[in-house]
Amino acid sequence: MIARLCQFGGGYVEGRRRPAGKQSRPVWDPLIHAPKPQRNFAKRNAERNFVMWLSVAWLEATGVVPSRTARHDDASREVGPFARFSRECLRRVGAPDADIVELINELHRRRCEMERYKDAGSTE
Question: Quick check: 83 and 100 in contact, CB under 8 A?
Answer without folding.
Answer: yes
